[in-house]
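User: Structure tokens for both sequences below?

Assistant:
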Amino acid sequence: MPVRALLLVLGAAVVHAAWNALAKRAGDQLVFLWSSVSLATLVLFPAGMRYLPAGGLPVAALPYLAATIAVHAVYFYALSRAYGSGDFSLVYPIARGLGVALVPVLALVLLDEPLSPLGSLGVLLVVLGIVAINLRRPAPADPARRTRRLGAGTGWALLTGLSICAYSVVDKAGVARLHPVPYIAIMGLGMSLLLAPAVWARRRALAEEWRAHWPAILAASTMNLTSYLLVLFAFTLSKAGYVVAARELSIVFSVVIGRVWLGEAQLGSRLAGAAVILLGVACVALAR
């Protein structure tokens, strides 16, 4: 993986873990996510239109834009449900890890991007590290809490991971046909409009979320699309499988955030899993 691509992805990992933690702390996760992305889109959209080619929006990019808008709507809805019913340090690794496991396979089939032996080893180590993080969780004292940790949150996290896999492959092809800035601006606008009816049905929660957490919404709005924009630029420089794998360094940050900021678990075995992830990222970074 080229150094520029790696730096872009690592920056995205830090920012991504931070805004996800803010979303976890929200009163209504769907309203929070929709508000932050919509606000970011309002700022980004005018700038994005300046990067359109002289002939306007390329027809070849339209199917990918339509697909990514639909998949991102599913992603944000599933993510909100996952954070509403599961711990951050459980949901985040499952959701992100599933993308690592599946994207290289789809990229090989759909984008003709074979992984080198070292790159394959790196992806495998990342996946194994994610499994290790989730193998040994301290048993909570409250049985109801155990049910919450291992129940609905896991299912929604898996759906989130599937959507991550889908939009990663779609967007790798999409940014080959349209500059990343207008691409993500149009995606953000379309996704906001698609989820607007669901948010309007929760308009009382929308008002309350802004009253109680407007500083966090503003902070997240500067991070969510920005973090993915860095990934889109990385897609233009490196293979989809490598980019998605290296991005999962954010799982290391999520383990620390879950313990230090949210008080969810002991570090222990999760840091051991994080060390395996770091080794995998190093392999990915060195792969050609």
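Moving on to the next sequence.
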Amino acid sequence: MESTDPIFEPLRFRNLTVKNRLTRSSITGRIDNYDGSGTQARINWESKFARGGVGMIMSAHIPIHIGGRIIPNVATIESDATIPFWRRVGAAVHRHGCAYVAQLSHSGRQQDLGGLENEGIVPPSSSNRRDGIHGLPGRAMTKDEIKWMVGLFAAGARRAQEAGLDGIELHGSSGYLITTFLSSAINDRRDEYGGGLENRARFLMEVIDAVRKEVGRDFHMQLKISAVDRHNAVNFWEKPGNTLEDSVQVCRWAEAAGVDAIHVSVGSTFPHPWNSAGPFPMDAAARHYPVMLPSGTLGFRNYLLFRYRVLRPIFRALWDRTRGERAIEGINLPESRAIKQVVNIPVICTGGFQTAAAIRAALVREDCDAVSMARTLIANPDLPQIFARGGDAAERPCTYCNKCMVAVLSGPLGCYELSRYDGDRERMTKEAFAFLGEMAEEETRS
């Protein structure tokens, strides 16, 4: 199958070639040390997917500064002292013929669990507006702070390059810092970083320029962008935010500035009804969400909606009201296609992919050049091997239940859909814990 299947054609970027069109998108959990240093569990986690056969891994959200973590216990890239760890991660992934791209990010106002280092500090953002889902606060950055933040992204890129990683991805989607500048629904600044689209994109363009000056033209850089904000998907009374036409223009500018690929997502916050698409896991949220109660002014309201069954229909109706009839698998392909038609660099699309037929069709139609997957690979890390053997899907596919999405607030990364384990909780738990206690296979080999 591999010799004739478009899924297994090499994907060629300007300065990087990966072995197939299957990539793993960012998925993170609390598996590193509290001080931001990395652990063997992180190496085991990334190696699991490389061993499963994907061509490229986009790392979990890597904070460029410890103050920009979404949640604690996530490894940072904030100093040169982190370079040896990321070198170990890259080397472990490379042993399986897989490329490793560091997703550089700053939480901005979307700081689910601030951690000790952020206690009493309002996170930097484009504006003072609170997030409308959790009530997470933000503080409009000064121009000096913007200049400092641009430098942090450039320094993070240099460290990724020195660690021998294959490139970086700028996280410009899902409500994090870059999104807060891009989004017309969030950015209410009145200076040169707010107002029209060109001004709102200024921060991103300055980051791209600074990265290129720091690492040169030969180091791979891609941009993850929310193609459509749909900022009012849940809160219908809010502004909708950036349109597809806005994002198409931003992608044109990003390509001209030196970006080598576009990674298409959707939404101005995370989670979002379109990202990750599927039902909202009420039972799991009732269990794991309480750790977020101190983080935002709307946390207690949300907890009541999740906790009490009589209230759940209210939140469920708001969550489900905009997705309509779009299938979960390939949900972002129309937006990906629109962007691919106007840029000359590869386009990667995320959105529930887990069947060879759907992926193959998207590639043949030229909706995208590759697909990215996260929760479907958590359910079946060996999906690429299944496709290579001629299979169309895993025996036990991802159900899109989204329990993994909320469990990471307080539990290990893993699939929490008990039905996939025939009701055997012990087996489910053992699989979720497996990568935490694995022997360091890569270390042993080296």
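User: Anything stand out in the second?

Assistant: DSSP finds 17 helices and 13 strands in the chain.
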